[in-house]
Each structure stands twice: as C-alpha cells, then as structure tokens.
Design brief:
The protein is built from three helices and nine strands, in the order ββββαβββαββα. By secondary structure, the protein is an alpha/beta fold. β5 and β6 form a beta hairpin. α1 packs parallel to α2. The N and C termini lie far apart (about 75 Å).
Length: about 160
C-alpha cells in the first residue's frame, strides 16, 4: 500500500479529527494519510488540536474503563488539557486533567453499579475530584421539574 503525500513510516494507530478533517495517524501522532474510506473505521477516534500527540494517554483511559470500552466511540482533547469521552449513545463523560485514568475507572464502576449510561442523560462531569455532576436531557429535566412542581403544590 502506498500512502499519500503525507507519508509516514508509522503503522495506523488512530483516526484524528481536527478542524473538520479526518486523518490516519501513527502512534507518535504523525499523519500517515487522509481518511478516505472505512477500512480504518475500527481504529480509536480522537478529536481536537493535539489529540494526535496523546494517543497513548487516550488508549490508557479507554483501557481503564475495562468492559465498558466498546461503548466509547471517541475521545476529544479539550483545550489541550483534558479529555472528554463520548459514548455510543451520545453521552459526554468529562474527565479531569489530573488522573483521567482513575476517573475513567471510577466511571466504569458507576456504570456497573448504577447503569448510568442507560439513564436519560447527556453528560457526566467528573472534573472535580470526589464529585459527580450529571446533566439530564431536556426531556428528563422537564419531567423532573414537573414532578417537583407537583410535589410543591401538594405541600401548601
């Protein structure tokens, strides 16, 4: 196989999206070629400026979620500092800058214990150590507000 003009001797390690462009990158982050077809679709998918240089860290984070790994479709490097994972059902898992692997492992335990990814949520924020914030979907938030207002009306 002959690679395009951005030829590198590396083996394909990930698909990197940056500025709307998809590229195949090696483990050291060098662009091997543009993504032209689906034959590399099974590679890890990373997004964001500099994410191609941190593929090893992303792999460690995905390894930390254990059997939850097949439900992680992408990782986005945010501001060059921290990762957000995106699940196959669209939930964003915001990891802290320090010890993202530990937070990812903790999230996997939450999934096993509480099936958090199966709830009507759009995001889980783990950026503050010892605290978990969950963002409900609009529908779930509306239902919760309705439920709370009904409880309040009954306590006159």
């Amino acid at each position: 196989r002959r690679w395009g003009r951005n030829q590198s001797n590396g083996t394909p390690a990930a698909i990197w999206q940056n500025g709307g462009k998809l590229s195949i990158v090696s483990a050291d982050g060098k662009v091997i070629d543009d993504m032209r077809d689906q034959r590399f679709a099974g590679l890890p998918f990373v997004v964001g400026d500099g994410a191609n240089q941190r593929i090893d860290q992303y792999r460690k984070i995905v390894e930390a979620v254990g059997d939850l790994a097949p439900r992680i479709k992408a990782g986005a490097l945010v501001s060059g500092r921290r990762w957000s994972l995106f699940s196959t059902n669209g939930v964003e898992i915001r990891l802290p800058e320090l010890d993202p692997e530990g937070a990812a492992a903790g999230f996997a335990r939450m999934q096993r214990d509480y099936r958090i990814l199966d709830k009507d949520i759009v995001a889980v924020d783990l950026r503050v150590p010892g605290r978990v914030e969950v963002q409900l979907s609009s529908e779930a938030a509306s239902a919760r507000l309705d439920s709370l207002s009904r409880k309040t009306k009954g306590k006159v």
